[in-house]
Amino acid sequence: MTTRKVQNPNEKSGAGFIWAVIAVIAIAAVVIGLIVFNGRNKQNEAAAARTIQVENLAVSYTEGDAFFTLSAKDGGSEAKSVDLFEDFSCPHCGELAEATDGQALEKIQAGELEVKVHPMVFLDGQGAQYTPGHSTRALAAELALAANGEAQALWNLRAMLFAEQQSVYNKVDNDDLADRAKEFGASDEAVAAIREGEFEEAAKDVGGKNLDYQNEKTGQAYTPRVMRDDKDLVEGQEINTWVEAALA
């Protein structure tokens, strides 16, 4: 007589259970992958949406100079030149950028205006009181982009640092600046230079030279300021009309 083993209906096959677990894990992995993929797509779309597109903008910077130059990539041989002094920790510089950057960019790309940007870091302190801070880090990132001729990334990083000044002041480090520059299309070389703080000494030097220049030529130093031929182009509240004054 054959004896059959009666299986408890509540018992499950060990192999079946394992395959069920594997299937659940596989499905979870796919779901997580889709979430990550969609999240990155949204981040990329957001970065693209806030990127200011420039078509005829060039930036040039020579090591040792106290400024970098924004000019038209093509044309601009008859452009009128001005010197713009600014500090990334200066609230009024942020206000000026918001009020005049759009018009300035239009005139630069039209070949009518050339802007020599003289960055300053005196709000990180002066002399023995100087400590590398937000102004220096932000300028170092800007110089890394200028040295690599990356006009669009530079313009957008600068615009972001001024537009979001209240939220980023003393809250962004080199990694944050490098990540933002990358979002704006910076090259791997420039991003690495920002991340490693390659231009921090240059930033300190540039800021110091511009501080000395203003003190020597006018007896006082401040930002924002627009000059031409060692003299103020506009003063006080008229500074919001500096683009018109530069082209007059």
UniProtKB/TrEMBL annotation:
Origin: domain of life: Bacteria
InterPro entries per record: Thioredoxin-like_fold (IPR012336), Thioredoxin-like_sf (IPR036249)
Thioredoxin-like fold domain boundaries: 75-239
Protein name listed in UniProt: Thioredoxin-like fold domain-containing protein
Native organism taxonomy: Bacteria, Bacillati, Actinomycetota, Actinomycetes, Mycobacteriales
